[in-house]
Here is the input.
Amino acid sequence: MKKMIKWGIIGCGNVTEFKSGPAFNKVEASQLVAVMRRDQNLAMDYARRHNVPKWYSDADALINDSDVDAVYVATPPSSHAEYAIKAMEAGKPVYVEKPMAATYQQCLEMNDVSRRTGVPLFVAYYRRTLPGFNKVKTLIQDGTIGTPLVVNVMLIRPPRPEETSVKDQAWRVQPEIAGGGIFYDLASHQLDFLDYLFGPITKVSGIAKNFGGYYKAEDTLVAHMEFENGVLGSGTWSFVSDNSSTRDVMEIIGTKGRIEFSAFGHEPVLLFNGHNFLEFPYINPENIQFNLIRNVVESIRGNEECVSTGETAARTNQVMEKIVCQK
Here is the structure.
């Protein structure tokens, strides 16, 4: 068993500033020792502000640093496979941002390398470890709403300036970098959590369209799905609506009640059971990926299994690809 896991980050951008980066030093038996960004000044600045001993502008240099035991890949999805495979080939466990990769094929390649080398691969679907989402899972497992029948997902919001900008458009709406549009960035969290609740999605069909014309990727989608355990599901996503239509709702209907919660608002979980109405407070760790990073570290140390792996995360990429490609 390793006593201490020393981490290196490839791509120390915004997501690592507060959501994930600081957690690597807060988790027991974990330490952040190196960061990399192509812009050496930004890498140096990040290292200075977060008290990280080493910084690099070359990913290979970080991967081959003998002080780095494991690698967190926090670049855009199009480069996840490249860096994750290099790290695994070097014998270093990988924790990669979501979605796992830009394409399902890249996910398969990453998992093939993980199996061949025996080096573990983890993916940052941290909702699997958050108290509010696990309360939903517990309510279902305890039979509080009876047998689950249907799940409905709705995520609707207006476009944001960085998405509609012609000059400096966000990478999240560029399919060649993100794999798809905002759907890949946000709905991946929802679909992965539903996989965690009900098992793999075995049947899925969808329609994806671009109504706004702000970018090449899809901006409005509708999907129907069936889960391994027989639960049926539907989803509606649109990222070009008016603000008055904004919705962020996930609803699970069972034979004895229903559960309602948000995917991104982190509002209280609502339980409607017979004539009863209960509200469960939602409390997150200071750094929202802390719980999953702790789980990853303990998995690398051989103490527990991780809830979010390359095998589970690849399924979400496959489902998204089927929804987007069935025009």
Summary: The mean pLDDT is 96. The domain at 131-283 is CATH 3.30.360.10 (Dihydrodipicolinate Reductase; domain 2). The chain has two domains: 5-126+288-305, 131-283. The longest strand covers residues 148-156.
